[in-house]
Amino acid sequence: MSIKDNLNQIKSELPERVTLVAVSKTKPNEDILEAYEAGQRVFGENKVQEMVQKWEDLPKDIDWHMIGHVQRNKVKYMAEFVSLIHGVDSPRLLKEINKQAKKYNRVIPCLLQIHIAEEDTKFGLDKAELEELIESDAFKAMENIKIVGLMGMATFTDDENQVRKEFAQLKSMFGNLKTKLDDITILSMGMSGDYQIAIEEGSNMVRIGSSIFGARNYS
Ligand SMILES: *Cc1c(COP(=O)(O)O)cnc(C)c1O
């Protein structure tokens, strides 16, 4: 199947409320353009420099989402154009995004990444850290970022119940956050292997790479 066929197949399965982020990390510009020509406009990358290069080379009406772990010293390279940062997992990172966004006179939409998986290798805030962050005076004073929702990654396992349980937990935190902040609209959960479950558990943004572009080659 071609990229276009894969994309159309997946899009036909998604409920209307669900936004598809096509995860193009490691993939060449030709592949992205094939998806673009099939109508896709939202792409996700996990390395800042790679995303900047693609932003420079590709059509300007693409929405670039940073879905990976972000180092603070890299924020400045994407502050001009990034349309959503999914992986915000510390007050210090948020502060840096706020600072860089200000230089461009922008308000950068961000998702807070929550640690829902059992593996401790996955980044993210826990419930108490989330609470502390949104209650802090420093956060309330930030004018150049806007928290618009939550993002999480489930444990990499065949145990569907485990994955479902983790997504349900994130959905519940999302509901709770809505009662505390305005503008909370995005729940980013689900990848190639688990997006159907994520959608059943309330996701409205899925990040899908290999099912669209094929397996990645990191060599
Ligand atoms: C790579 C990546 C994805 C996409 O993974 P696939 O399994 O290829 O769909 C989604 N989210 C994050 C955070 C990623 O790093």
From TrEMBL:
<comment type="similarity">
    <text>Belongs to the pyridoxal phosphate-binding protein YggS/PROSC family.</text>
</comment>
<comment type="function">
    <text>Pyridoxal 5'-phosphate (PLP)-binding protein, which is involved in PLP homeostasis.</text>
</comment>
<keyword id="KW-0663">Pyridoxal phosphate</keyword>
<dbReference type="InterPro" id="IPR001608">
    <property type="entry name" value="Ala_racemase_N"/>
</dbReference>
<dbReference type="Pfam" id="PF01168">
    <property type="entry name" value="Ala_racemase_N"/>
</dbReference>
<protein>
    <recommendedName>
        <fullName>Pyridoxal phosphate homeostasis protein</fullName>
    </recommendedName>
</protein>
<dbReference type="InterPro" id="IPR029066">
    <property type="entry name" value="PLP-binding_barrel"/>
</dbReference>
<feature type="modified residue" description="N6-(pyridoxal phosphate)lysine">
    <location>
        <position position="25"/>
    </location>
</feature>
<feature type="domain" description="Alanine racemase N-terminal">
    <location>
        <begin position="2"/>
        <end position="216"/>
    </location>
</feature>
<dbReference type="InterPro" id="IPR011078">
    <property type="entry name" value="PyrdxlP_homeostasis"/>
</dbReference>
